[in-house]
Amino acid sequence: MNPAVSRRRCLLLCLVFVTGLSGLSARLIYLQVVKSSDFAKKSDRVSIRKETLKANRGCIVDANNQLVARNIPRARLGLDKKLLHDVGPATLALANKELRQTYEWSTWDERTRKSKIKSRASKMVDSMPADEIINQYIDHVIDIFARPLGFKNEQLRERMNLENKRQKYVVLKKDISEDDAEKLKQLTVDHSILHAFVFEETQKRWYVMPEMASHIIGYVNHEAKGMAGIESQMDQYMSGKDGYVRNHRDKFDLLAVAKPQEILPPIHGLNVQLTIDMGLQAILEEELDAGLQEFEAEKGTIILMNPQTGAIMAMASRPTFNLNTRENIAENGYDFATQALYEPGSTFKIIATAGAIDLGLVEPSTLVNCHYGIYRQGSVRVPDHHPYGMLSVAQVLAKSSNIGAYKVALQLGRQEFFNYLDAFGFGHKTGIRMAGESAGVTNDTGNPTDFSRNSYGYAVSVTPLQVACAYSAIANGGTLMKPLLVKSIMANNGSTVMNYKPIPVRQVVKESTARKMRHALATVVDIKGTASRAKVEGYQVAGKTGTTVKINPKGGYLHGRYTVSFAGMMPAENPAFVCVVVVDDPQTTEVKRYGGTIAAPIFAKVAKRVANTMGLEPTEPIESTEPLAQANH
Fold first, then answer.
1. Most C-beta atoms within 10 A of its C-beta, which of 39, 147, 393, 551?
2. What sign has the CA pseudo-torsion 120, 125, 129, 135?
3. CA atoms within 13 Å, Cβ hemisphere of 34
4. Is 276 left (phi over 0), alpha (psi -120 to 50) or beta?
5. Is 440 within 8 Å of 425 (Cβ atoms)?
């Protein structure tokens, strides 16, 4: 074939092939360019905004289902500064502003209003420079929102930080009430300026009685995460899980209301029920404040515990803070009941006494030679407050003889003494649901002098809660109980998800030993004992006073400054509660600063009111008596 003919044929075939495909090519071009533009326009018409649906944090209620803490709905208003400079929404808002001032506005229905606004906005775009539209729009936004947000115009302009082009989003106001948020939302709708504003649903934790049981309840941070107390310890149950809603809005109909297209409901948190009775808590708070004021002290605690279950019925500490404002929390967040370490003094004398009785070494009636004010044995020197001579073991507790306590501890032996000390829970955290609990210090140094001081509550450090737990073991028949703060976890419909049962830690002493100890401790509150001021008319009280010189943080002791305490139970035979009172550094000069003169009368006032509240039947004849003689230790 002629090469020229061949070339022409190839060109013709190529032309035919291209011509044959021209229809398909045109269709492809149409789909890829023209039609895809339409598709893009349709997808671009839809603006999708995902909004979080906040889960409600569970409530906290007391043992009687009285509300203690709950969430209240709040809102946060933000501004999308990028959208603030969008000419389209700006002209709609300005058109809205202009037309609302006309007489005809009130005669138009909603549909007509939208139509008129769009028409007027279109004319504005053609007649006004974009910069002027944006500037007028910003002025309009400030005029509308300044006063409802609690600002002057210039203050709101400054908060919007318009000069900072790199900042795309700014929070205009936090912590807006639900009602105010609805009013602000309506303003954005009424004035067609919803486009640039972002309303975020938030929650605020509200404490019904913010200065009661503050250390126990704790608080949450700005992200609603528990940071202290029960709020922290039970955070996993109360926090819940947020949901969301995706709102679709037509970008070309900015006056239309957004439509939710996808919703995932939030899972709300569970509710926590405390063992605390807020009625009893109020009694402790009031009497602690009154006692500290009367005896001129700033720090102290009162603990009320159910000895049978280990439940903390009430627990107050000073200093304290307001859970809603949290002012001075850095200084006052320290919980005296569970974190304060102090030398317990004579309240510690139950260790040697209970141990010796438990092992059959002594009985409450066994006589002990307490000498006459000073006892020396080698390098050991034990002082007493008075020359007691011969006392029974029960009288050693009633008179609070240091020498007697040491002599009983010698019969028990150093190893057994520390065994019982350990069994009663000293030197170990109690395991209460409170962060930062102290374990105390109870070292067996092997030094005879240290051992003598240990026997009457020196050279050891304990917490008030440890003392309450130890006395509860005496009160309930010899079992150390783990202190409980949480009674149950409940769903929002009121059903119980989980109950917290009493947790026995160990049997410390025999039941018979505990009974003998209660009888012996009841003599302490007798008219001849050191705690006569702890007496409550109609009830037999058992307990023990404690007075120690305060430790100097730099070493040694702060002479003339004391920590005084009383640990008691009532009624003595079958105690319904154990109550521990500790007052740190009282400055009063009205009475001698002893546990019997300061802590014991506070106990008596608390115990009387608690008995009335609990409806306890009197166990003793009620007689009208003269004021009891002043105790001296």
1. 393
2. positive
3. 6
4. beta
5. no
pLDDT over 70, % of the chain: 88
SS3 271: strand
Single-letter amino acid code for the residue at 615:
G
> What stretch of H or E contains 89?
helix 87-100
* Beta-carbon count within 10 A of 435 CB: 15
Confirm if 314 and 217 have CB atoms less than 8 A apart: no
Beta strands in 479-608 (DSSP E): 479-481, 486-490, 496-499, 504-507, 542-551, 557-570, 577-584
Closest CA to 521 of 364, 370, 633, 401: 364
Question: What is the SS3 assignment for 550?
Answer: strand
- CB half-sphere exposure, 542, CA atoms < 13 A: 28
Nearest-angstrom CA–CA distance, 19 and 577: 103
Domain 42-75+201-250+259-270 has CATH 3.40.190.170: no
Neighbours of 129 (CB within 10 A): 9
- CA pair distance 222, 243, nearest whole angstrom: 19
What are phi and psi for residue 614, nearest 5 degrees?
-80, -10
Residues 6 or more apart from 20 whose CB is under 8 A from it?
none
Coil, helix or strand at residue 308: coil
Residue 434, SS3? coil
| DSSP line for 20-87 | HHHHHHHHHHIIIIIIHHHHHHHHHTEEEEEEEEPPPPPPEE-TT--EEEEEEEEEEEEEEHHHHT-H
Domain boundaries, the chain: 42-75+201-250+259-270, 87-195, 278-323+336-614
Residue type, 398: A
Q: List helix spans (H) across 161-300.
A: 178-190, 214-217, 229-233, 235-238, 278-294
Q: Residues 344-401: pLDDT tens digits?
A: 999 999 999 999 999 999 999 999 999 988 999 889 999 998 899 999 999 999 999 9
30: how many CB neighbours lie within 10 A of its CB?
11
Q: How much is the average pLDDT of 514-520?
A: 97
Question: Among candidates 180, 226, 280, 188, which has minimal Cα distance to 71?
Answer: 226
- Do residues 116 and 222 lie in contact, with contact meaning Cβ atoms separated by under 8 Å? no
Angle between helix axes 448-455 and 402-412 (nearest 10 degrees) is 120
Q: pLDDT tens digits, residue range 563-592?
A: 999 999 999 999 999 999 999 999 999 999
Taking the CA atoms of the chain, what radius of gyration do you get in angstroms?
Answer: 38
Q: Which CATH class is domain 278-323+336-614?
A: alpha beta
Burial label, 227 (beta-carbon count in 10 A; 0-12, 13-18, 19+): middle
**Distance (Å, rounded) from C-alpha 628 to C-alpha 386?**
20
pLDDT higher than 90, residue 549 = yes
C-alpha dihedral (386, 389, 395, 396), degrees to nearest 10: 70
Half-sphere exposure (CA, 13 Å, Cβ side) for 278?
Answer: 19
